[in-house]
Amino acid sequence: MFKRILMGSLLATAFAAPAMAEVSISGSAEMDFFYRTNQASNNGDGAFGQEIAIIVNVDGKDKLDSGDTLKWRLAQKVATDYRYDSFGQREAWIGYEGGWGELRFGNQFSNQYLALDWPYGAQGQGNLWADFGAQKVQYSKAVSYFSPKFGGFDFQAQYDLGSGTSDARAYEVTAKYVQGGLRLDAGFHEAKNDGHASSEALVFGGSTWGSGNDFSKENTVRAYNVGAIYKFDNGFDIAAGMKRNEWSGDVDNSIHGGNGKTTVDQYLVRAGYTTGKHNFNLGYQRVADSKTDGVTANDGMDVINAQYNYALSKNTSAFVQARHHMMDDANKSSVMHGAWQLDGAANGGKDSATRILVGTWTGF
């Protein structure tokens, strides 16, 4: 009898404890079918492709006796057909929130990257605005602080512990101001001794999402960004941004040889209009010529992007997108080290690359 009572008490405790904390599941599912011209994988000819991306976020929080809140997130993106990552490589952190702000510890996205990707890189503009550059996507060993809002203003600060010593570190400071339809953003990022420093936005210190363990090079990378968005009452919205990328020291050879300094400036403008279930967007980006130790290369490019979205429900939309890259030099695309960074473009004598995409997105 005692064993049955004890086992019953343990089971009751085990199953009662989770009910005291809030746990929720959210995410999205996206289907993209596209045609791309000038493909490196197809000898410069066009090719069809598709991608299915499913994101699952598991969030939890518990109200502490002090009045503060303990929070946590476990998240993963499964992108077919080339990657099936282990759960938690996307995000895995624990945080503490109160009237003083919020502290998070663990594997987290860069707040600078999140702002560059959305809302500024929205509607198909993120491939050059967020995924290309000196900024990082993620810090695997981050300590992050999120301030309370002060009359529409708030800021964030992140620091990656790296190897736990003073010879490798990454940090960033970001801020935004929101008042009515106006939003202003600014950010600064610096990482040192990154063994994987390149023009691809990666996890600081490592080549695998969710981990960072290579601080073998002597280098410094920096990214600066400012931006503004205004949403009008009549359905129109406009956005503009500037970003500077800097690489110094021992970095990927596609950026520069030796130990010099390379800079690349980027500019973005975008306009949108929403009426009923319809949303129209048109954007333009300029990637300026790179400069290495003051010497300018003829490797800039212009990008025009258009996207139409139609709401199928409150949670699901269908969209059509066209993205067209125009290179100043048919054989150069800034300091990119891989064709995938420019929609698979071959850079083999053709001075443009186009992607036309149709897809659906649903949130849950």
Helices, strands, pairings?
Layout: H1 2-16, E1 22-36, E2 47-63, E3 69-80, E4 91-98, E5 101-109, H2 111-120, H3 126-129, E6 138-146, E7 153-160, E8 169-179, E9 182-192, E10 219-231, E11 236-249, E12 261-275, E13 278-287, E14 291-292, E15 295-296, E16 301-311, E17 316-327, E18 352-363
Antiparallel strand pairs: 1-2, 1-18, 2-3, 3-4, 4-5, 5-6, 6-7, 7-8, 8-9, 9-10, 10-11, 11-12, 12-13, 12-14, 13-16, 14-15, 16-17, 17-18
Can you give a write-up of this model?
Residues 11-325 form the Porin domain. It holds the Pfam family Porin_4. InterPro entries: Gram_neg_porin_domain, Porin_dom_sf, Porin_Gram-ve, Porin_Neis. The protein is mainly β and 364 residues long. The protein has one domain (34-363): Porin, CATH 2.40.160.10. 8% of the residues lie in helices and 52% in strands. It has three helices and 18 strands. It has helices at 2-16, 111-120, 126-129; strands at 22-36, 47-63, 69-80, 91-98, 101-109, 138-146, 153-160, 169-179, 182-192, 219-231, 236-249, 261-275, 278-287, 291-292, 295-296, 301-311, 316-327, 352-363. A 16-stranded antiparallel beta barrel has the order 1-2-3-4-5-6-7-8-9-10-11-12-13-16-17-18. The longest helix has 15 residues, at 2-16. The protein is globular and about 65 Å long. The N and C termini lie far apart (46 Å). Residues 1-15 have low confidence and may be disordered.
